[in-house]
Every structure is written in C-alpha cells, then in structure tokens.
Amino acid sequence: MSNYVPEPFRIKVIEKISKTTPEEREELLKKAGYNLFAIPSEKVYIDLLTDSGTGAMSDNQWAGIQTGDEAYAYCRNWFHFEETIRNLTGLKFVIPTHQGRVAENLLFSAVVSKGKVVLSNSHFDTTRANVLANQGIPLDLVIDEGKIPDFIHPFKGNIDLQKLEKTIRHYGKENIPLVILTITNNSGGGQPVSMQNIRETKALLKSYDIPLFLDACRFAENAYFIKIREAGYQQKTIDEIVHEMFSYADGVTMSAKKDGLVNIGGFLALNDEALADRIKEHLILIEGFLTYGGLAGRDLEAIARGLKEVLDEDYLEYRVGQVKFLGDMLEASGVPFIKPTGGHAVYIDARQFLPHIPQSQFPGQSLVANLYRRAGIRATEIGSYMFAHEDSSTGEMVYPDLDLVRLAIPRRVYTESHLRYVAESIIKLYHDRDSLKGMKIVAKGESSLRHFVARLVFIE
Ligand code: F0G
Known about the structure:
The protein is an alpha/beta fold. It folds into 2 domains: about 20-50 and about 310-460, Aspartate Aminotransferase, domain 1; about 60-310, Type I PLP-dependent aspartate aminotransferase-like (Major domain) (Aspartate Aminotransferase, domain 2, 3-Layer(aba) Sandwich). The chain has helices at about 20-30, 60-65, 75-90, 100-110, 125-135, 160-170, 195-210, 220-230, 240-245, 275-285, 295-310, 315-330, 350-355, 365-375, 385, 415-430, 450-455, and strands at about 45, 95, 115-120, 135-140, 180, 210-215, 250-255, 265-270, 345-350, 375-380, 380, 390, 395-400, 405-410, 440-445, 455-460. Helix 1 (about 20-30) packs across helix 14 (about 365-375), helix 8 (about 220-230) crosses helix 9 (about 240-245) and helix 8 (about 220-230) packs across helix 12 (about 315-330). The radius of gyration is 22 Å and the shape is globular. The model has no long low-confidence stretch (mean pLDDT about 95). It binds ligand F0G. Ligand F0G binds next to helix 4 and helix 5.
C-alpha cells in the first residue's frame, strides 16, 4: 500500500456534509428512478460524480474574487487573465468562455463542416458531440495498450502515430481541419500523453500542414506524469514541462473547471489570427463580449490565479497521489480497475466486478446505485447505460468496449479518511457482489443524453 501524500494546505473554511440512513437513501433512489443525477447533493455523503467545477478555491483565489472589476469591456481582470494564458501557452489570441464545451463549439463550428474528419487520442463526449453537431466525423486513435484495462503502460493516453498517418492519408489532409489531443485522456481513464508523443504528433502534422490542438483541461496533471514517468524530465520544473507541452500546440481548448481550479470558466487560445477573428464574432453572439465571454470579472481573476497555483509541484504530487492511494487500497482487495490510476479518477471495471450481470442489464449502473444505497457515495457510470444504442440500420444493440464506474476526485476537497471510507465501502460491496442485481430502463429521454434523465429499476 502506498503512503498518503499529506495535503499541502490547511483547512480554513469547511462545508458540512450529511450522513443519511440506508432507509432514507432507498427512498431517495426510488424517487430518483435509480438515476444518481437526480439525487439532491445534500443527500450525498461523498460526491465523486465529477472533478469538474467541484474543487475548492484557495484563500488567494477568494481574495482575487474581491478584486473583480465588473465593467462590461476590458475590465482589469481580463488583462490578468489574458496575460496569464499567453504566458502559460505561448499562444497569441485568447478567447474567454464560460466552460470548456463552448470553446469546443466555437472552434468546431468554425472549422468543421459536412464530411470533415477530426482525429484525437480520444474525444471527450462534449468534444465528440460538437464535431458531430457540425456534421463532422470524430475518430479516436488511442494506442491499443490504452484500451486494455489492466495493461500497465506509463502513457496509455498516447495517440497511435502509425494509425494517425494512415488515417490522414486515407481521408486526405484537406479533409482534416485539425487533430486534438486530450491531456489527460478522460474517456480512456484519465491517462497521460507523453511529451514524446505530443512532439512526434506535432512533427507528423507539420509535414501535412494540419494544426495540432490540445484539449488541455487537465494539463498540469499530465505535466506531472511526464515529470515522474518520462526519461529526461525528472529535473525539469512543472512550469518548464507545461511550456514545452504547449510549444507544440497551434491552439488549446480548456475547461478551467478542472486544472484552472475554479468552479466555472474556460477558454480557447490559438495563433491563427484570421480564425480567431471569425471565432470572436461568434463569441459575441453566443457568450458575450470579447473580454468576458460569459464570465464575471471576478471569475476571470479566480481562473488567472488558479492557472498559476496549479503548477505547484507539491499540489500535483498530493493530487495524483490521492488517486493512486485510492487505487492501491482497492488493488489490495482485488477490486478490478483501470491501471495504472490516472490523474483525476479511479475507473472501476464494472464487468469484471459483476461478471454475472450482462451488459444489457447495466452492471456499472447497478454498482453505482448500490454504492449510493449502501454508503451514500455518488459515482458515475460510463458504459452501457450511457452509451449502448440501437444500430439504425440493423436494429441490433451496440455496446461499448468497457463498462466503467468513475470515482472522480474533486480537487482539494476530500481528505485521506474520506478516501479510506470510499475504499472500505467499495471493498465491502465487492465481497457481496454476487447479491447485486442487474437493472432495466423504464423511462428514457433523448437517447444520446439518456443517462441524465432516464429512470431505472432493479430486475428482481
Ligand atoms: N474536455 C474534457 C477532457 C472534459 O473532461 C470535459 C468535461 C470537457 C472537455 C468539457 O468541459 O464541462 O467545462 O464544458 N468533463 C466533465 C467530466 C464534465 O465530468 O469529466 P465543460
């Protein structure tokens, strides 16, 4: 078992969390149709639904909030925000948005049209949806090792360069407006991408004149993995590593709700002036003026400060250490999950955990519902419940490769004892796994977003 890296901060403000009884939770689950998105947060003891926008800000960020300049145009916090992102990424044009998916919307609506192909290690859901919404084709080219849950590899988020070149030749470079690397690779288990992979991707794309973008939500966690796992980077500072990573990028989309250490915000940054100008017009239409993009001046300030704070190596050691600590506790009891642990979450392999529940009965959702029922912990299913769909031509069900349950850890929120409670609860559930039942959907909404709204029951 690994040692816990102590929190590199002390706690100045606290928020009460409530315990509920198993009977209360059973009632709440029934009312929610066993859909965890419909459970009131005040009835959740430990909330691992997402690491997005759920972190705690520092005293320095809260102090920055007080300096918010709420003028409509060119407030002082905008200058700080712009300068911080320019210094961080080396990119010239900065476009503020209220969260990451708007940066994606602005980018893809400007460069993608019918039949255009966007290549990635793995598109995150909203990224994929924004490519599709513009009638483009999103393709995932993560290395094969990245798809095997317990295969140990230091950079399971890497893109397969041979497949990348083959795909570019197949579709023709004129049909590929950009390639986007997600760092770390959320859909693939929060796995990092190596510096070598980013560098070689850029070199390959340069020869075809295709721009490289980074979906950089978790760029600092990725940089920390490069520091501890990639030869030649142990002596470099996080700052130096981050600068090198971004030096290969022609543009960046970012949800600041992750490594921006804030509760809301995002941006798009790029070097192509003509493209930036087109996007800015659209920005005014859907988000707001060029210097606030759907955010208050105080939010811009908190992001600028968060983007500097996140480069602290002590913080990153603790952050990545927390995820590993949770993973190591589960490992010691044989609970199956994606290995090695990534930057922001532990991803349990629900099909291995519950081999008696077929994909058609949503093993991951059964695990999620039972975890809340027994322990008041909220996690997310990323598997058949979220993705299984009917093939429109054959009418047959198509199931995803993996049924995962994500335990995403909010930044600077929970302590070692909270994680111990989580591990103990999951291990208890694992010992009792044979008694868990499959589920069926009894009411669903739009199929692509059904996991937010559907209602389920256990199959008795
Ligand atoms: N890209 C990645 C890799 C993400 O993980 C997310 C959000 C986004 C883009 C979109 O950013 O939410 O600010 O619009 N991920 C959250 C999650 C929702 O739970 O993983 P957003």
